[in-house]
Specification:
Blueprint (H helix, E strand, L loop, with lengths): L1 E7 L10 H15 L6 E6 L2 E6 L6 H9 L6 E8 L4 H15 L6 E8 L8 H15 L4 E2 L6 E7 L3 E4 L3 E2 L11 E5 L5 H11 L3 E8 L6 H18 L3 E6 L1 H10 L5 H19 L4 E3 L12 H8 L6 E2 L7 H11 L2 H4 L6 H4 L11 H9 L4 H10 L2 E4 L1
Parallel strand pairs: 5-6, 5-7, 10-11, 10-13, 11-12, 13-14
Antiparallel strand pairs: 1-3, 1-4, 2-3, 4-8, 4-9, 7-8, 12-15
C-alpha cells in the first residue's frame, strides 16, 4: 500500500483522436511544477493521472496546492493504492483509511464502488455493502446515510485498487498551452487579470502588455501590474509582461481629438500597438477585459469602432459577466486585493468627463487618419518596450 494523489480531468476525457496529446500536455505540466520536490512521478491510469512519491513519504500539504493551480485539473483525491483486490483486502484498506481520517467517528457515511473489470465476482453495490458493513462494525459512533452523507468513501478497482474519501475541486479547463497563444491588454484594474486567467483556463498560452504613461501614472501603478502578472504566473507556470511606454502616444491623441472621442481613439491605439507586440510573439489573438455595457467604451457601438483597429481576433472572455461575477473570480484567483490598490492606470488618468457612448466607426477612423505621426509614435513605443518574465 502507498499514498497517492489521484488527479482528475474533465473535458479532456471526451476529446477524440488528439486526446492523448492534451493528456500528455497536462502530464508534462504536472511534472514540471513538481520538479522542485524530490521523488514525485506522474503516471497515466485509465482516465485519470496518479502522482506518487518514489523517494519517501507523500507530502500532501505541499503537493495538493501546487497541483490544484494547474489548469486542466478538475479535482484531486488523496488516497491509497494497493494491488490485492480481494474483498478481504478492500475491507481492511477501507477501514484503515477511515480510521486515519475519522478516528473519533461522529460522521455519517456511505461507500461507493467503481470497477472497470466487470468480471470481478461481486457487483459494485455488493462491494459497497460489504465494505460499508465492515466499517460500521469496527468504527464507533458512525451511521450510514446513502442520501446525504458527511463522508463518501470511494473504492475503485482498476489496474490496482484505490480508496479515498476527499475530492478537492480544481479549476478545470484545458492544459495551459494546448490551444494556441494570445496577448492580453492588461491594466491594473479588476477585469483584465480575470480575462487573462479565463483565457489561460481554456488552454491558451498568454503574454500580457501594459501601457505605462509616466509621469501621469506612477511607479506604484506599474508595480501593481507586475504583481498581478506574478500572481497569474502561479496558474500559468510562466508569463511575459511587456511594459509599453505610451506617454507620447497618449498625449498626441489627447491634443489632437475631441474630448468625447478620445477614449475610443486611445483604445484603438492600444489595440494597434498590442497587435504589433502580438505579431512579434506569434500570438493569434488579442484579449481585453471588456464587459458589454460596463462603461462608455464597452457599448456595442464602441466595441465596433475600437475593434476595426485590429486585423486579428479580439477575445473578450468577460463580455457577458456582470461586475460581481468578475470580482468573485478575482477574489478566488488572488488578484482582487492587488487590483484595488489605489494607483491609477493610463485609461483612468486620460478618461474624458463625458465620453461618447455611441461612436460611429467611420467618423472615428477619419479623425484617426488626420493625427500626424501617430503610427510612428506607436512603432517607437513598441521598440522601447520592456519585457519582464515570471
Amino acid at each position: 500500500m502507498k499514498n497517492v494523489l489521484l488527479v482528475k480531468y474533465g473535458e479532456i476525457a471526451i476529446r477524440g483522436k488528439n486526446r492523448y496529446l492534451i493528456e500528455n500536455k497536462l502530464i508534462r505540466t504536472i511534472i514540471k511544477r513538481l520538479e522542485p520536490y524530490e521523488g514525485y512521478r506522474v503516471y497515466k491510469e485509465q482516465g485519470r493521472l496518479l502522482v506518487v512519491n518514489e523517494a519517501g513519504e507523500f507530502d500532501y500539504d505541499t503537493v495538493i496546492p501546487v497541483v490544484l493551480k494547474i489548469l486542466g485539473v478538475t479535482a484531486v483525491c488523496p488516497g491509497v493504492e494497493f494491488e490485492d483486490q480481494s474483498i478481504e483486502s478492500l475491507r481492511e484498506h477501507a477501514l484503515l483509511h477511515f480510521k486515519e481520517h475519522f478516528p473519533e467517528g461522529g460522521v455519517t457515511f456511505k461507500v461507493v464502488t467503481r470497477r472497470s473489470d466487470k468480471r470481478y465476482p461481486m457487483t459494485g453495490n455488493e462491494i459497497s455493502a460489504d465494505v460499508g458493513g465492515y466499517i460500521l462494525h469496527n468504527v464507533p459512533n458512525i451511521k450510514v446515510d446513502v442520501h446525504n452523507p458527511d463522508v463518501t468513501l470511494m473504492v475503485e478497482l482498476r489496474n490496482n485498487a484505490y480508496v479515498y474519501s476527499k475530492v478537492i475541486k480544481g479549476y478545470g479547463g484545458l492544459p495551459y498551452g494546448a490551444s494556441g497563444k494570445a496577448t492580453v491588454l492588461m491594466s491594473g484594474g479588476i477585469d483584465s487579470p480575470v480575462a487573462a486567467f479565463l483565457t489561460a483556463k481554456r488552454g491558451v498560452e498568454i503574454e500580457a502588455c501594459y501601457f505605462d504613461s509616466p509621469p501621469y501614472t506612477s511607479e506604484r501603478a506599474k508595480q501593481k501590474v507586475i504583481d498581478l502578472a506574478e500572481q497569474l504566473a502561479k496558474y500559468t507556470g510562466s508569463l511575459k509582461l511587456h511594459i509599453v511606454p505610451f506617454t507620447d502616444t497618449q498625449l498626441k491623441i489627447y491634443e489632437s481629438t475631441p474630448p468625447e472621442k478620445m477614449t475610443v481613439l486611445l483604445k484603438r491605439a492600444m489595440l494597434k500597438t498590442a497587435q504589433k507586440i502580438a505579431e512579434k510573439n506569434k500570438s493569434m489573438a488579442l484579449v481585453t477585459g471588456d464587459s458589454i455595457g460596463q462603461v462608455a467604451s464597452q457599448t456595442m457601438e464602441a466595441i465596433v469602432a475600437i475593434d476595426s483597429a485590429a486585423t486579428i481576433p479580439v477575445l473578450r472572455p468577460l463580455c457577458a459577466m456582470d461586475k460581481q461575477e468578475i470580482i468573485d473570480v478575482a477574489v478566488e484567483i488572488g488578484t482582487y486585493d492587488i487590483s484595488i490598490r489605489p494607483y491609477e492606470d493610463c485609461c483612468t488618468v486620460f478618461v474624458a468627463r463625458h465620453p461618447e457612448t455611441k461612436p460611429k466607426k467611420s467618423i472615428i477612423e477619419s479623425i484617426e487618419r488626420k493625427i500626424e505621426g501617430l503610427d510612428e509614435l506607436m512603432d517607437k513605443a513598441v521598440e522601447n518596450t520592456e519585457t519582464v518574465e515570471f
